[in-house]
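ingest -> validate -> predict -> emit
validate: passed (alphabet ok, no gaps, 617 aa)
predict: started
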Amino acid sequence: MCGIVAYVGHREACPLVIKGLKRLEYRGYDSAGVALMNGHGLKIYKKKGKVAALEHELDGKETHATIGMGHTRWATHGEPNDVNAHPHYSFHRKLAIIHNGIIENYAAIKQALLKKGHTFSSDTDTEVLGQFIEDIWEHQAGASNAGTLEDAVRLALQEVVGAYAIVIMNEADPTQLIAARKGSPLVIGVGENEFFLASDATPIVEYTKDVIYLNDYEIAVIKDGTLKVVTLDNTTTTPYVHKIELELEAIEKGGFDHFMLKEIFEQPRSIADSMRGRVQADDATLQLGGLRDYLDKLAKSKRIVIIGCGTSWHAGLVAEYIFEELARIPVEVEYASEFRYRNPIIKEGDIVIAISQSGETADTLAAIELAKSKGATIFGVCNVVGSSIARATDAGAYTHAGPEIGVASTKAFTAQVTVLTLMALAAAKRKGTISDSLFRQLLAELESIPAKVEKVLQAADKIKEIAYIFTYARNFIYLGRGLNFPVALEGALKLKEISYIHAEGYPAAEMKHGPIALIDEDMPVVVIATKDSSYEKIVSNIQEVKARKGRVIAITTEGDTHLPGIVDFTIEIPKVHEVLVPLVSVVPLQLLAYDIAVMRGRNVDQPRNLAKSVTVE
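emit:
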């Protein structure tokens, strides 16, 4: 959840690292720091707050260096302050370390070091790891079989329990960076006589398209302009160099006020990109190359278990309805964070679909490993090529949504639902549970979705006017039925994430089983009331809210003449087949949340306490 950037080569390291930290600030923004090495030795500068505060701290400092590393933090151990910010010195200041992840046994290691006379300036597990590595290194140096810093890192990490991506600088060697990973992503960019390290490719793409994805239990040693990769048991490996397709403009705001708004407006394209090369409605063909060898297994499965967290979990709930409706396969949707701790019943023949925007979600990765150990076949649905989940699964499909920088997912949700819908359609076609006519109809409707989302986005000004009216609210209720129930959950999540207004989503029929007690003239209620098989029922639910003076914002189907006379405000969406309506009905809820948050003065791209890529439990 923290952001790591490091560089060694011929360029000025400090401005490169700072620029990289700004691109990674969506991963953590409690504090930031850099370590630089030049004629003045190994120097660390760090500051609580955003990267801008660190830049101010660096004003007037001697920052010339061709080796450096930086970190932007999402606090786990110790409150966000200057002292707990990374990088951290080792005890004798021979090393500097930055770290993403959690060292679970840091307390035991710390106690052992305290008995040796070590003292600690921070509350972090990271400082403990740095001191532990230095202690092993110094102990080796005093022995007859003196080892290298690389050896010390290997030995220390063999004792560590937890997850980590680390980078270490060595005061004695201005050409050396050592990095390692287990459970947290780390990318190495390969340039001409230079190397870049980062948590993801966004800080690297400006300088090189050649990257190496470090695997779990691997250590990268960069020294004197060469790269060596070894495993924890000291086996040398030959890393594969990938070509990244990410373009620089994809990670810029492109004239929008916020990344979140840009990504909401990118959805017509990202949905189309999620279908590109896969759907041909004219000749009723659907091809998912990543599932080609497993499609029979999916169609014949007796049970599907979908795992995800947050927005990805909501996409899984939508998929549950679609798989059961079209493919007639029983589906369970699990929080990945709970799945791994409750001894779930998984059998050979079960299909587990893991959903993650980043492909690095720690809880989802752990759930995958558990399901694999029980013989399940694992499919992945993620956005980042080469990510941990993409490599850990048996098969799957990328969403091709492009980079999502805003912490609150928007285009990730619609891209995930698009890909999951394609998977359900492919399974239904192979299984014979869908008629040819419905199959053709849904493919054609899918191809029309980007244009329909574009039409919803044209109502942005009207949605902004509605948002202004409700900036006073302290609570919201979102209601939906059927496929729109997960959309209600997603709409409520977006509002609470970025505006800090308490919001809850419910199945509309459940309102009378408790939440109706909250309804009064000060309670805004957002109801997704599109023309579908539940329409008459949800109209009744709206009347129950209005009878108790609730204020209703209704998402309605274009041309609905009945609801405008009942509710306070309506936002129209084009008519969409019931199976596909979440792809369109969620968009006005994203805009509503965005506008309310902006009007309340919130930082919508970096909401408090949240980070984009949740790589710790």
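The two ends are 10 Å apart (CA to CA).
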